[in-house]
């Protein structure tokens, strides 16, 4: 699902259009909370859209964790092209597995990542613990019709491509309960199409 072909396609779209609308909203909201000199942990960062934007706005160090080698390498090449690869620590693997090895960051972002992970509680709790100041996410609406579309998508993917990837529509209230238990409270929320953009701050 997240191979070199899709990574290159995403990069071409990024060159043409820039970040998608939901990601732009997340970047702007995180930036308003102070980026200069900060450390960013970008989980499932893909081709590096968020990190490229925040480095340009003054972020000092990025840790980019991704379970796709193709996307990680594409992000590395783009960071090199832009001249800031020396400020990025590229880490391959399942975030939950390697989280104990990672240091806390001022800002933690998960752009359409929680919906790709079956064990949501482990992912959210482990990532929240590493957020010193701000925590930003983009997740699908947890409406019945979105869940129905997700199930249909998963079925078609399994039947016609045998692809093991699955989309998960996790309850927003459960995500926020875990974040609240970690001392994070929501400061910003906006719906963008079927996506929810939210930023949390440590209380």
Q: How are the elements arranged and paired?
A:
Layout: H1 4-17, H2 21-32, E1 39-43, H3 49-56, E2 61-66, H4 69-82, E3 88-92, H5 95-98, E4 105-111, H6 120-129, E5 131-140, H7 144-161, H8 172-181, E6 184-192, E7 195-202
Parallel strand pairs: 1-2, 1-4, 2-3, 4-5
Antiparallel strand pairs: 5-7, 6-7
Helix pairs in contact: 1-4, 6-8
Describe the structure.
The protein is of the alpha/beta class. It has one domain: Rossmann fold. The chain has 8 helices and 7 strands; from the N terminus they run H-H-E-H-E-H-E-H-E-H-E-H-H-E-E. It has helices spanning 4-17, 21-32, 49-56, 69-82, 95-98, 120-129, 144-161, 172-181; strands at 39-43, 61-66, 88-92, 105-111, 131-140, 184-192, 195-202. Strands 3-2-1-4-5-7-6 form a 7-stranded mixed beta sheet, sandwiched between helices. A hairpin with a 2-residue loop joins strand 6 (184-192) and strand 7. Helix 1 (4-17) packs parallel to helix 4 and helix 6 runs parallel beside helix 8.
Q: Output the helix-strand order.
A: HHEHEHEHEHEHHEE
Gross CATH architecture:
3-Layer(aba) Sandwich
Please bin the fraction of helical residues: 40-55%
Number of structural units classed as domains: 1
Number of strand segments: 7
From the N-terminal CA to the C-terminal CA, the straight-line distance is 37 Å
Could you name the CATH homologous superfamily?
Answer: Vaccinia Virus protein VP39
What is the CATH topology assignment? Rossmann fold
**Rg calculated over all Cα atoms:** 16 Å
């Amino acid at each position: 699902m997240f191979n070199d072909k899709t990574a290159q396609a995403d990069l071409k779209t990024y060159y043409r259009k820039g970040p998608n609308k939901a990601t732009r909203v997340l970047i702007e909201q995180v930036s308003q909370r102070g980026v200069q000199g900060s450390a960013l942990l970008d989980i499932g960062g893909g081709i590096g859209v968020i990190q490229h934007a925040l480095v340009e706005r003054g972020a000092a160090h990025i840790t980019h964790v991704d379970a796709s080698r193709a996307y990680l390498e594409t992000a590395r090449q783009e960071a090199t092209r832009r001249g800031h690869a020396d400020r990025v620590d590229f880490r391959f693997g399942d975030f939950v597995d390697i989280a104990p090895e990672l240091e806390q960051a001022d800002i933690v972002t998960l752009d359409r990542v929680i919906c790709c992970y079956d064990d949501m509680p482990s992912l959210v709790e482990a990532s929240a613990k590493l957020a010193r100041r701000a925590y930003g996410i983009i997740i699908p609406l947890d409406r019945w019709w979105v869940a129905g579309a997700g199930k249909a998508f998963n079925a078609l993917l399994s039947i016609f491509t045998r692809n093991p990837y699955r989309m998960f529509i996790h309850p927003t209230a459960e995500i926020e309960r875990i974040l609240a238990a970690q001392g994070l409270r929501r400061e910003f929320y906006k719906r963008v199409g079927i996506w929810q953009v939210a930023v949390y701050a440590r209380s």
